[in-house]
Amino acid sequence: MLTDLPVPALRLDLDGDALAANWRMLDRWSGAARAGAAVKADAYGVGAHRVVPLLREAGCRDFFVAHWLEAAALVDLLDPRELAVLHGPLSDADCRFARESGVRPVINSLEQARRWLAQGGGWCDLMVDTGMNRLGVAMTDLADETLRGLQVDVLHSHLVASEDEAGPNEQQRRRWREACAIVPHQRAALANSGGIALGPDFHGDLTRPGLALYGGHPNAAFDGKIRQVVVPRAAVLQVRRIAAGETVGYNATFTAPRAMRVGTIAIGYADGYLRCWSSRGVFRNSEKPLPVLGRVSMDMVVIDLDAAPDLAEGDWVSADYALPEAAQTSGLSQYELLTGLGRRFQR
Ligand SMILES: *Cc1c(COP(=O)(O)O)cnc(C)c1O
């Protein structure tokens, strides 16, 4: 048995205090409603195994994943009744898992409602479509007999463009209220992160922030309220000196204008550091900016070490990854920046 594992060359530093502070801020901002947490996609790439216990400690008691296998991976970390699966039951096996574990399915269609009831039913959530046309029971199906058999805890709908004041928020809110008047339920939920900023009319009993928990700013209303949660950090694999006129990386897109000291670091496409960061990304070592030179070259990136003459092989650098700014620089969405973080990071 091997006892000494090799040392990782890539880390995702998680600021647990910032995560908890973001949840508490969103919970307060949700007013009379409680804030839950969307922890699908491995808590947006941050690492659900770390995020769920930290959020529970902060007081969160409602968690949402997309897939059933995500739920199965989390049931030991919480009371399964705190967890709901947004995709809903696609098979009888999903229903059996839900009934045995206590995890709630979010019913999205009459078909899913029938399947759930045929397997014995019990507490579930219901998603009503108010304009997204992605998942959810249509407004026109709300009077259907089938739904009356359901024992609905949370009646959900989901906003199309909550971050955009000019979006169809008000129309969706009215439809959601209408749905609430038709289908008996315990709690009502509409707002994702952006929806929380739309005010009390959008809060219902429970909000479902995801992005903002992890440091995302859906719009300027979040500036100054939400803290950065994760920082990708990579080890320097090699330091080299290059002469003026030499090129760096695949396709030679950077040519050194002068003699330079450069460092090759262990981060690349598989880690979510995509080609859009080529010649744009910045890493730092004690605040000093170390810009990316040329292309991201598969598993590696070369950075300019001029600002950090003492930096050596084995040292660590941090990516500039504050989400609103990183989205601007890279052209990726804040969601892509988080969920794309690969499996090689030590989390
Ligand atoms: C992912 C998701 C959320 C969280 O959305 P954010 O924009 O990340 O806050 C909320 N509700 C539903 C139904 C979701 O699928």
Helix and strand run: EHEEHHEHEHEHEEHEHEHEEEEEEEEEHH
Mean pLDDT: 97
Count of helical segments?
11
- The CATH topology of the largest domain is TIM Barrel
Q: Quick one: biggest sheet?
A: 8 strands, parallel
Count every beta strand, where a strand is a DSSP E run of 2 or more residues.
19
Identify low-pLDDT runs.
none
Tally of domains:
2
Strand content: 15-25%
EC number: 5.1.1.1
Enzyme class: isomerase
GO molecular function, one term: pyridoxal phosphate binding
Cofactor: pyridoxal 5'-phosphate
Characterise the protein shown here.
This protein is of the alpha/beta class and 347 residues long. It folds into 2 domains: 15-217, Alanine racemase (TIM Barrel, Alpha-Beta Barrel), CATH 3.20.20.10; 230-321, Lyase, Ornithine Decarboxylase, Chain A, domain 1 (Beta Barrel). The protein has helices spanning 16-29, 40-44, 48-58, 68-74, 92-101, 110-118, 145-148, 169-182, 193-196, 323-330, 334-339, and strands spanning 10-14, 34-35, 37-38, 63-65, 83-85, 104-107, 123-129, 137-138, 151-156, 187-189, 206-207, 230-242, 247-248, 254-255, 260-265, 282-285, 288-297, 300-304, 316-319. It is elongated and about 75 Å long. The structure holds pyridoxal-5'-phosphate. Pyridoxal-5'-phosphate (PLP) is lined by residues 38, 40, 86, 158, 192-194, 208-212. Substrate binds at residues 134, 298. Its EC number is 5.1.1.1.
